[in-house]
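RECORD TYPE: inverse folding
INPUT: structure tokens
STRUCTURE:
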């Protein structure tokens, strides 16, 4: 699995029938310091992730074999929304700390 940040959505009205109703997200991968890498990927979303959230992404055959769904022609699948990440016992990311109320923006 890899860590990525949701940076947008992808809308496709004409697609493979097995992808109907599947939410597609534009992801930017992150390095071990939480910095964005110059790599993007479109991934199917199985967990309801939103803009700016950090997510876990599985790729390859694991993305096509998610439980409870039919085989879909996807190369990447968001399988988790990240709450916290720590490296060397130091916090790197916390979802609750990233949230800003619309009144605080």
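DESIGNED SEQUENCE:
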């Amino acid at each position: 699995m890899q860590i990525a940040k949701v940076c947008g959505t992808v809308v496709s009205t004409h697609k493979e029938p097995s992808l109907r109703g599947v939410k597609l997200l534009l992801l930017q991968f992150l390095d071990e310091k939480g910095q964005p890498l110059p790599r993007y990927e479109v991934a199917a979303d199985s967990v309801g992730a939103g803009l700016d959230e950090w997510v876990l992404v599985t790729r390859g055959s694991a993305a096509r074999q998610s439980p409870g769904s039919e085989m879909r022609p996807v190369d990447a699948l968001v399988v988790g929304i990240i709450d916290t990440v720590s490296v060397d016992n130091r916090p790197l990311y916390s979802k609750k700390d990233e949230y800003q109320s619309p009144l605080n923006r």
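NOTES: The chain has one domain: 2-104.
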